[in-house]
Amino acid sequence: MHTLEIRDLVVALTETPDKPIVKGVSLTIKSGEVHAVMGPNGTGKSTLSKAIAGHPDYTITSGDVFLDGKSVLEMEPDERARAGIFLAFQYPSEIPGVSIANFLRAAVQARLGEGEDLDAVAYYKNLYAKMDMLKIDRKFTSRAVNEGFSGGEKKRCEILQMAMLEPSFALMDETDSGLDIDALKIVAEGVNQLRGPKLGVLLITHYQRLLNHIVPDYVHVMYDGRIVKSGDKNLAIELEAKGYDWVKDIAVPAMS
Amino acid sequence: MTASASTLPQWWLDTRAAAWDRYNAAPAPSRADERWRFSDVAGITLDGLAIEPAALSDSEILALKTKAQGALSPFRATLKHAASLSFINNRLSHSASLPGELTAKGVIFCPIEEAIEKYPQHIQTYLQKHDVALGSEKFTALNTALTTSGALLYVPKNVVVELPLILEHIATDDDACVYPHTLVILEDNARATLIEYFASAEPGARHFASGVNDLHAGAGAQLTYIGAQSWSSNTLAFQTNSIVAQRDARVTSLNVHLGGRQARHESHSRLQGPGAHSEMLALTIATGAQQFDQRTLQTHQAPHTSSNLLYKNALLDTAKTIFSGLIIVEPDAQKTDAYQSNRNLMLSDAAESNSLPGLEIQANDVRCTHGATSARIPAEQEFYLQSRGIDPAQAHELLVAGFFEEVLNKLENEELHAVLASLLQTKFKK
Ligand SMILES: Nc1ncnc2c1ncn2[C@@H]1O[C@H](COP(=O)(O)OP(=O)(O)OP(=O)(O)O)[C@@H](O)[C@H]1O
Ligand SMILES: [Mg+2]
User: Which among A93, A102, A104 is the top mutation candidate for probing chain B, defined by the most B β-carbons within 10 Å of its own β-carbon?
Assistant: First the structure.
């Protein structure tokens, strides 16, 4: 059982530390839970997830993030990843010339102990099984990571990585955007298969339709750098019906 | 100069004597010479080196050969190949002959001294017929004067050699000097792949190397040449490479530079018949205080010829690279299609890459482009890898490998591609 605790987190661009984007977010995710975060464009959802993963463009000016009670702020991004935090990017980078197979192999290898060698046969067996589960053509193993991938292929590749690396917490930033209905179902099915007592999920999305497939335990509404309302899955339905203007009205009094 | 091998024909002894005179008469490289711009000419010193390889006793030769067995190239160790020759300190230490089926067709792959005796017509017709003329004439002359190692590869008309041929040149012991000299002649419509590997037996020994290649591709011939050097960190190395492509010939040359304190490589392609193509490729990983100096010339002498140069360097630490490339299109070479690109991946702020691309076009209906870039690893890519748990050093290694893939992907031989990729990786393991 693991816990990821985000406490009073304030995040700014590293170059403008006095202008916070995330303005004090607190949220605790336990293994087995799925927390959905919804909110209008530019509200700081991606900033929150990238700051937790250790992106150098962002600086945490106050507050903290604890993984099982231990602050991750002094950890490098790769250490945070090995400790169990996985970020599924809203806009995954293209890595020219590095094949998915080699890339994931390096990532899996990085999780082995000193002097421990990767079992290549077992690795490929696992990789192919996960690809089959996500209905990704096996030919993709030799394609360069995300290079020339369609939007949907990129998102599926993020889930493939998550499936291979078995994090204890996944921060999934709009993994559903860019997916057609079929791909959405495949990705949701993939996430549901990974879901379980060993995985906690922070699911950033704009669309209630995803939450029909991945039913969240909690829904949080983010507005202007803050979580202004939290509830269960019904909050997403309400939000869908009423729109973000509704939370704006809640947010204003909350701020005063 | 002392001519050691008395069995060599007089014409060759004369050639060597003349070359020795040229070597002594030629001035040392100077930065005043445009062709040595940016070069560290002060680092070019042969003081204290055993320039003329000494005569050895039988037991010394035996000891050398034993040493050579430990310096087996990754190519010979892992690639299926048709034949191989290895030299250590200019002496033949290993040979695996061509299969009978190829010798029956007239294919020749033998040490250069044997070729001088047995096939003088090939040597006299082709050896250094075309100057590389990019600045290292002094060292090329030294090579001609002293070479005893290297090989002749001759493939007759219409003969295809499917598997690669492998040549290895090893230097061992401090102050050793080696002079590999390779002549490749592909007659019309012949096809072959030659892999040449240069290395030091000891990673820190002081070595000097001056190598020369002559590659001739007859009409419709297809030649792939791979040169990979992994000299010691205290080697001063020169290598010149002359490529001639006749009508519809296609030559792909890929040079991989890993070792050396200071290494200079010159390559000159001459496109002499319509339809001729030269693909000029190079990959360099420059670390520590290494200096790599690459000079190229693409000379288009006939209409409808094409050339494509892609030199990629990855620079770390305080390493320095120089790329100076020129495309010349002669007046008759209308419809030339020439491309030249030098890409530098900077992994350190203290590293320095210099690019001097140039065009000299004397025909009016041509397409010539050139470009040079120097870029750091994009921060987003680095973060993406790190966010998967890959540490920064490993991330750099992967990104450099990815950067090189564009070049390795041009090779048809998948096995060769894999061996080169893992050879490049070894540079990071040191
Ligand atoms: N690297 C950056 N450089 C400049 N501005 C940035 C950067 N990252 C975030 N911002 C700004 O911070 C604000 C929040 O951006 P963020 O990407 O976190 O929003 P979001 O909630 O994820 O929006 P969306 O729903 O559109 O993905 C925006 O105004 C954005 O322009
Ligand atoms: Mg976003």
Answer: A93
